[in-house]
Amino acid sequence: MTQPNARSIRKDEHVRHVLNQPKQIDTDFNRVHLIHRSLPEFNLEDIDLSSAFGAVKWDVPIYINAMTGGSDWTKEINEKLAVVARETGLAMSLGSMHAALKDTSLNSSFTIAREINPEGFLIANVGADVSASRAKKAVQLIDADALQIHVNAAQELIMPEGDREFKNWRQNIEIIVNETDVPVIVKEVGFGMSRETISTLKELGVSYIDISGRGGTNFAQIENQRRINQEMDYMYSWGQSTVVSLLESEPFQNEVHILASGGVVTPLDAIKCLSLGANAVGISKLILDKVMNDGTDEAIKFLNDFIYQMKKIALLTNSRDLNDLKHSPKVLSSELENWKIQRMGQIYE
Ligand SMILES: Cc1cc2nc3c(=O)[nH]c(=O)nc-3n(C[C@H](O)[C@H](O)[C@H](O)COP(=O)(O)O)c2cc1C
């Protein structure tokens, strides 16, 4: 048994709150309409959803996004997630590894993922305030194939014990990108990104960005519920949805590799993300729910079926691969179209 510290207690609390968080209803996915094609040119077996972007090549465009580690309970969860990743071939990101970087007795809650899945694509995860040497240590610890840096200013500010200093983040991200020899993905944690953020990241040399938008796991809600005084409970709908974040990313999609996450719960949601320009789609809560409620075998079956269903939907849009999907016609609701029109006139830094 490892000794619980403030971070490991918080990690356990996050999982508990996420498991109790009801499905979010306003995701914006229903505001994107793909066009049904009655005469597809392909057979189902022709559909190839593999994704290659930058130095990354995945057989399927879905990955298990960052969640946890740093306590005994979350070690068990990471073990289960790693089994699912190994059996489905999905890439898997670990949760924030700060805890292990400060207290080596917590290492095994992360390294378990590599033990279980020696050949798998694993992604280390740190915050934007971590030094480059610690970020590299996180990568080494799990022999990671990529590194995620989470940018979670909204979560920190809503958290009573959270960080209050952010101005060194930009420079720090630039240093980590320069000094790390695996692909570095900068990700949100469910508040979405804007054209301004993406443009700044591009200037800093970042070429992989997970816009992780609003519509799924809601850390504004979780951080409020973790305390008695619900001081900022009016912030539950803060941020850009996953769909809006993808629209915001459009001008940069030829220059940086965009990944999507946040509120993806159906194969149709995932296909919509790909059709809006994402190279792959990250899922956290849905997979956590499956693993914890139904077990690893059911979670594996569920994910294999999820990907099979994605192929069926791609076929119905007459798309053979991700490139076809990106260029497939779609109609946006007037709300989304209005967002685009208003944002078009706004200059970003
Ligand atoms: C239990 C839990 C813990 C999380 N911890 C982290 C974390 O440590 N680092 C991080 O970058 N994102 C973390 N996230 C955010 C996810 O990676 C993802 O961005 C967000 O949950 C939106 O995806 P979802 O709606 O599919 O859950 C966590 C999510 C969950 C559900």
Q: What is the secondary structure topology, with strand pairs?
A:
Elements: H1 6-20, E1 32-34, E2 51-53, E3 56-58, E4 62-64, H2 72-88, E5 91-93, H3 98-102, H4 108-116, E6 122-127, H5 132-141, E7 146-150, H6 153-158, H7 169-179, E8 184-187, H8 195-203, E9 208-210, H9 219-225, H10 242-249, E10 257-261, H11 267-275, E11 281-283, H12 285-294, H13 296-316, H14 322-326, E12 330-332, H15 334-344
Parallel strand pairs: 4-5, 4-11, 5-6, 6-7, 7-8, 8-9, 9-10, 10-11
Antiparallel strand pairs: 1-12, 2-3
Bound molecules: flavin mononucleotide.
* Proportion in helices: 40-55%
CATH class: Alpha Beta
Distance between the termini: 49 Å
CATH architecture: Alpha-Beta Barrel
Q: Structural class from helices and strands?
A: alpha/beta
> What hetero molecules are bound to the protein chains?
flavin mononucleotide
User: Which whole number gives the mean pLDDT?
Assistant: 95
Question: What's the assembly state of these chains?
Answer: single chain
Q: Major beta sheet, specifics? A: 8 strands, parallel, barrel
Strand content: 5-15%
Quick one: how many beta strands?
A: 12
The secondary-structure element order is HEEEEHEHHEHEHHEHEHHEHEHHHEH
CATH superfamily: Aldolase class I
Task: Supply the number of helical segments.
Answer: 15
Strand order of the largest sheet: 4-5-6-7-8-9-10-11
Number of domains: 1
The coarse overall form would be: globular
CATH topology, anyone? Answer: TIM Barrel
**Computed CA radius of gyration, to the nearest angstrom:** 19 Å
